[in-house]
Records
---
Amino acid sequence: MTHSASTGPTVYGWRASGNCYKLQLLLDMLGRPYRWIDTVTTAGATRTPEFLALNPNGKVPLLVLEDGRRLAESNAILCYLAEGTPYLPDDAWDRARTLQWLFFEQYSHEPCIAVARFIARWLPADHERQAELPRLRERGAVALDVMEDHLAREGWFSGGAFGIADIALFAYTHCASEAGFELPRWPGVAAWLERVRAQPGFSPMIA
Amino acid sequence: MTHSASTGPTVYGWRASGNCYKLQLLLDMLGRPYRWIDTVTTAGATRTPEFLALNPNGKVPLLVLEDGRRLAESNAILCYLAEGTPYLPDDAWDRARTLQWLFFEQYSHEPCIAVARFIARWLPADHERQAELPRLRERGAVALDVMEDHLAREGWFSGGAFGIADIALFAYTHCASEAGFELPRWPGVAAWLERVRAQPGFSPMIA
């Protein structure tokens, strides 16, 4: 990990966010230098006028290239950084399947598992949003079922090989226990998590 | 529009769904033959054992190629079908920006505007989910604000030109009034909707 390099892109990110962690994982696996600017959502750092000028949608992660160009949306950033590397397939169909899982992650997985983790871990025990947890856990379990079903047939999510769809899905699956999911219920998923951790350049979440 | 061709891919889709309409729009603009199999979510057609065998995530649209290969997730399907056409840029940065808006659409736009439309249009007036509408409309307005902000600087969402991010965002923006959004509040968005409607091959939603 290189966080103070004068070369390479800058990531605005919160270390405890799975969406931000995706970029740490890919950049570390690629061995690319980058600068990380801690931007803590729960401290309001994404709602300041300065940050909203960088990303009008007020979300991290945000990638800023050395020439100042900016890119938002974690999975779009993964695609951009992985282009031309083994983490994003060249073959059109394998690329399409990778994108399928990237969109699955943002639509059917993250809004349940990441949101449940946020409520369970950061909001007070008497917060009204605690009432959302049963429904989020029910829908999150369906997402894990879909992953388990896929892993019964294939070892990875990125068009037959390890790649950015695995990185994206790892981000919030590996900490799903913090959201109240009992991962041993999904043994294929649990085994896949270990295979991801064994990838060269893997770095744990800093939380 | 060609719905009975013996060549071309098959789309399982519900005509009233914006996610499905995206594929109709792109295929019609490309002038590609395709077969459309009506799969009405509200009638339970995505929860049958037959459909779940095709897509374990139980969602439409689903693309089935002539050789039987299957692809889910509307925006992944758009990317696959648009590859090599003017609707998906070749340039790496323009492609990244297109993907940014595709992920924005699925994370920050569709879960508010499409869900509000579903509740307002298909659920009974005394359904408990009607209580979600104020919050969905508040968050949907933020998504429309982000689009308006972008359209103050650029004419399109797909890396400087019209393309699949415009198609994806058009799908639920054009019918946002059914979800309770007053589109004249966003004049840049309203003007962009008209520019999309003027694209060659444009076909209206069949609802």
---
Amino acid sequence: MDRLTIIKVGGKVVEDSQSLDALLNQFTRISGQKILVHGGGRTATEIAGKLGIPTEMVDGRRITGESMLDVVTMVYGGLVNKKIVAQLQARGCNALGLTGADLNLISAKKRPVKDIDYGFVGDINDVNSRELRIIINENVVPVIAPLTHDCKGRLLNTNADTIAAELASELAAYFNVYLFYCFENKGVLRNPDDENSIIFELDAPMFQQYKQEGIIHSGMIPKLDNGFRAKRNGVKEVLITNPENVATGKGTRII
Amino acid sequence: MDRLTIIKVGGKVVEDSQSLDALLNQFTRISGQKILVHGGGRTATEIAGKLGIPTEMVDGRRITGESMLDVVTMVYGGLVNKKIVAQLQARGCNALGLTGADLNLISAKKRPVKDIDYGFVGDINDVNSRELRIIINENVVPVIAPLTHDCKGRLLNTNADTIAAELASELAAYFNVYLFYCFENKGVLRNPDDENSIIFELDAPMFQQYKQEGIIHSGMIPKLDNGFRAKRNGVKEVLITNPENVATGKGTRII
């Protein structure tokens, strides 16, 4: 099977033009088939603010009302996605920007209201990779925005880490998939004040223990949950690292 | 050669949810391969206004400064395009939203400044249909936003009528292309106050004469220039009509 690298980058990296440049230079160097999954939350918050739409977050997740859905559709699917596509094309990388609605790639259902009404947030039902695999085999590089659809004409806001994990899991049947979660640190840190205190290998019992000890907490927990699920689903390697180490393979490896 | 229908619809049609519904119902019924090219100017003007960015038009063309480029990227490439894609998916039509940067589909150069500085407006250099044809042959339906790129990382705002004509011309070598320009009237009218005064057939000398007599004027002139160019480039049929007549083939036929 061919190697396929899936890189997920957070908003912080893609929304600053300097760090985006550095990321795209690294990304272009990766040999073989590849996919970029991106966020864009900071720009969404900024544009929403300018439009007079308040941003409300619960546990790091955006409450997505009707007008916020329009904002994330514009910002994730349009502004952030198409800028990345144009800049990859400038580097000779034949990028194709996608949401989960395009090619019916990722269908989802609106999250049921329990304690909190997240609004138009989607929990993934299914990944359809048929057309995606055809274009990947034509050396096209998909660039994926964190939006899905409900098959009834509605776009839904969906977490980019989850999209990357589900896509990696689906594609593991066809490729040797390497999944990289890129964020600001070199890996999962034992001590948040020491950026060299990287946990190089992480297995499920260690993850439980670090959670209990409070060493791994807040936003890192769902990210790692996604990573462990992808690993269980046959993804060859899951690495948490920063954009600079995408090429070296240094960081926290899920085992 | 297979039949390929290219429908270009203006902003007025796609920005109103009722007329968009009607259009997509008609569009879904077209048999064979198809492409939808859309505008979105009214929404761009509205969002720009809310963001405090003034809209300036010269001869119906938008002056596109840096911040207006962000707006059209968001609105054309994101909001309008992805809503259409999601609603086509709901109708069982496997849509794929594209700009000219995606798949390196349409490259352009920034319009040189003469009397007027249009800003980041692109004049088309080249259409690359290789990957587009592969996906069309997989029964995917491209939905194309009026944006191109300069191959140097910059998106450019490009007229949707021109995009439709250039795409139709390029694809005429591979398909029997039928190009429909849809707008609010049933065709080009002899008398603007009588919507039944349709000019059913229009050839180049008639076009010259109607222009001289002032019967055809303003925005209709560049639209028809695009239509005549497409026809000269081997497009099988070019029709100016409204969305309701996409299926019947009634309207103004360029001969």
---
Amino acid sequence: MKKKAIVLLSGGLDSAVALFFARDKDYVCHCLNFDYGQRHNIEMVMAKKLSAGAGTALKTMKLVLPWGGSSLLDKKSALPSGRKPEEIKKSGIPSTYVPARNTIFLGIAASYAEAIAADAIFIGAHSEDSSGYPDCRKAYLEAFDRVIRIGTKRGLEKRLSLEFPLIGMAKKDIIKLGKSLGVPFQHTWSCYRGGTIRRIAANMPCGKCDSCILREKGFREAGLNDPLARQTIWTM
Amino acid sequence: MKKKAIVLLSGGLDSAVALFFARDKDYVCHCLNFDYGQRHNIEMVMAKKLSAGAGTALKTMKLVLPWGGSSLLDKKSALPSGRKPEEIKKSGIPSTYVPARNTIFLGIAASYAEAIAADAIFIGAHSEDSSGYPDCRKAYLEAFDRVIRIGTKRGLEKRLSLEFPLIGMAKKDIIKLGKSLGVPFQHTWSCYRGGTIRRIAANMPCGKCDSCILREKGFREAGLNDPLARQTIWTM
């Protein structure tokens, strides 16, 4: 019988690569997506396209964190803009950090994993070329893996683990890996700003937020073109 | 300035003691309660009474786990009944285990803690005289403490930790501690069955589920009377 995996699928580039990676490792994947009051829902539209394209199930959980605490949740706060990759890396935890987001998402994924008797939970987190989120670092993911292994029934039976295959990779290598796995990058959305109708129609991520900057750097260093910069989303 | 704590308050006896313990340690307490599809809502009514009685804030988060996976969520499944305390302790993880419940609750508590700049998260979990839940054991709580310490901003600043003061205590000692702290036990509900109107009106927890059995043992061994067995809830 094939192994089962829960894959945290945000609709961003990294989680898309994690999904295709798990599928390539022969897991039957069950994607888990969260509607948690993000500034925009383009990511969620992308998660649907990605999971459908990969032939996997997708479950979206609605979860409102009434205390906010992040510029990714509060449309009135300013997003970091125009920072260089090295500035992003050096400047500590940015305002886009959503308090304990991965801990919440992984906890819910662990519950889902117990219920459907999954063997692994995949997360596309990495800390190279990223925004300094504490819940994307290797030590954190290792600690959470231990939580799952000793704090769930499946874990205690040695049947459940947390997998974070992208953790040590640079963005360019994640993109190259995704390319080799056939990830449809045109169905991944990284821009924090989401998009006004005008921007989406014109097919333009903002190009200035940290996430756009890091994506652009990744594609450039990988020597690949980002299809989002050239195709129109509406035709996908 | 006084320290702040998030207290997971289910409305059961243990979390009530944890709340009064934290308050006694001079924390300003912010209680967090979950409406997650329990079989009954008496616990939640009790959480309101307890937090009001303790003069603390209470936030209730609604969270539905669509996959269920527990006899505590599914009214159609049978609850363990009539088991002796030693049977409960020896029989492994019972059907009342809710997959990864504490991991989800603690993750959300960590997010709340970040947002209000809390110093600690209190949980009343313990593993003596309890139901063998993997997410109530010391090793699990220590692992989650590490997740919080390295996976949150407050944790990295060494300003947030998980506190589980009841972990090594027998139920009788938790009850004695609660008594000394002035916990209103008549406002705590342990019975898994909740109660039909008839049972509540007659002021009777079922007396047969694991939770009733362990509570009864605790009060008996502590040499105290359980007020729930004598008072009418409606008059509280």
